[in-house]
Design goal:
Helices cover about 80% and strands about 0% of the residues. With about 150 residues, the protein is mostly helical. The mean pLDDT is about 85.
Length: about 150
C-alpha cells in the first residue's frame, strides 16, 4: 500500500528538475519512482487475481493487461501533448535544454500522481477477499506431481 506514496514522492520531487539538477538527486528521485511503480505493477495484478473466483483469473488478468495498455496509450498521448506545448513555450525564451527540463518538471509529476490515484481507486474498489488456494488447483497440482514421480 506504500508504493503509490513512493511514486507520488518521487514524481513530485521532479518538480525541482532544472538543467543544473545533480545526477545524484536524479538517481534518488528515480529510485523513489521505481520503488513506487515496481510493487504497484505486480501488487495490483495479484490483488485483481485474488478478487475474482479461480475460474476467472485468466479473464481478470487479460482485462488488467488490456486496460493497462489503453491507459498507457491515453497517458502517452496526453503527456506528449503537454510536453510539446511546454517545449514550444519555453524554448524561445530559455533555450532547448531548459525547455526540456521545464517540460519534464511539468509532465512527470502529473503522470505520477495520476497513476497513483488510479491505482489507489482500483484497489479501494476491489472486493475484500482473503488469499486462498482453491481445492481444485491444489488437487490438480498434487495429481500432476504424483504422475511425474
Amino acid at each position: 500500500m506504500a508504493a503509490p506514496f513512493f511514486l507520488v514522492a518521487g514524481t513530485l520531487l521532479c518538480v525541482n528538475l532544472t538543467v543544473g539538477t545533480s545526477t545524484l538527486a536524479l538517481i534518488g528521485w528515480m529510485a523513489l519512482i521505481g520503488l513506487g511503480v515496481g510493487p504497484m505493477l505486480s501488487g495490483l495484478t495479484v490483488a485483481i487475481q485474488n478478487a475474482v473466483p479461480p475460474g476467472f483469473v485468466g479473464t481478470a488478468s487479460a482485462n488488467l493487461t488490456f486496460f493497462r495498455q489503453i491507459g498507457g496509450s491515453v497517458a502517452l498521448a496526453g503527456a506528449g501533448t503537454a510536453y510539446g506545448s511546454v517545449i514550444a513555450r519555453e524554448a524561445p525564451l530559455h533555450g532547448l535544454p531548459a525547455a526540456h527540463a521545464a517540460a519534464s518538471a511539468t509532465v512527470i509529476p502529473w503522470l505520477g500522481v495520476a497513476g497513483a490515484v488510479v491505482a489507489l481507486v482500483v484497489l479501494a474498489l476491489l472486493p475484500d477477499r482473503k488469499i486462498t488456494r482453491s481445492a481444485t488447483v491444489r488437487d490438480e497440482g498434487e495429481a500432476a506431481l504424483a504422475q511425474v514421480g
